[in-house]
């Protein structure tokens, strides 16, 4: 049984202009000890999906309209709020995208670290402070005892992100959700943080959901990849499947926009022309049809969305691939 099994999740935002279908019938699974990546353009539904798992969607205007979120055999959407609080931060934790806006600027690092430890583990303040110091040491922050008295603005961006990681692992959760954990730091610090996360997940035997734009990171660390577009998962499979045999033109476009060391230096990066669709009035057929170079008129624009397993564990929603064709391979080879 999967540790996390999200089935047909629908999350909406009710605005003055209409209902925004931010997450529209999304399903994915995460197994214990596994690193799963959610990739896609900004606004495709990655973060909203993860916030739905944590039940942190602001209501109103947001609403989880339907679906199931099964975690360790329990449907999180049916739990009372007080029961969900016991799971959030303890069994499921989240590393937010921008630590400077996630950390409280008027509270010390020690105060913020010990809050969840005292709440979920029932520790007294002194024991919780000792545990917090151990956590800071574990994530590579020197002089941990002294740094507990510091405030977030005393830390660099990389150090603040390490504090966020320490908070996320403070209760030894079964699932960690990392939302763009390396966005605000340079490349060297990115590598350090990702190796740190990988080691911690292995030590705790936890699972990790990695939300990122960085396909290089995905290729190095992820076991399985879910590609999202316009609030839906349009392709998923193992990292090897996604990178070596993409079955959706959007996936091909994402891969083509990343510089590669095995290509000539003067090779131009390919871009995906056009803009994502309006999620207030999503198109009736394939959401990617208006930007697709392989669009079949009269078919792609009226098709009903469905995921088809092309090879074991590798699914796609692209009608062209489902029909047995891969014209993008001729283009990209």
UniProtKB/TrEMBL annotation:
Family membership noted in the UniProt record: Belongs to the ABC transporter superfamily.
Xref: InterPro entries: AAA+_ATPase, ABC_Ni/Peptide_Import, ABC_transporter-like_ATP-bd, ABC_transporter-like_CS, Oligopep_ABC_C, P-loop_NTPase
Membrane protein topology class: Peripheral membrane protein
The keyword rRNA-binding is annotated on this UniProt entry: no
Protein name: Peptide/oligopeptide transport system ATP-binding protein
NCBIfam families membership: oligo_HPY
GO molecular function: ATP binding; ATP hydrolysis activity
Segments forming domain ABC transporter: 4-255
PANTHER family the record matches: DIPEPTIDE TRANSPORT ATP-BINDING PROTEIN DPPD, OLIGOPEPTIDE TRANSPORT ATP-BINDING PROTEIN APPD
Principal cellular location given in the protein's record: membrane
Organism expressing this protein natively: Dehalogenimonas formicexedens
Protein location: Cell membrane
GO biological process: peptide transport
GO cellular component: plasma membrane
Keywords: ATP-binding, Cell membrane, Membrane, Nucleotide-binding, Transport
Source species taxonomy: Bacteria, Bacillati, Chloroflexota, Dehalococcoidia, Dehalococcoidales
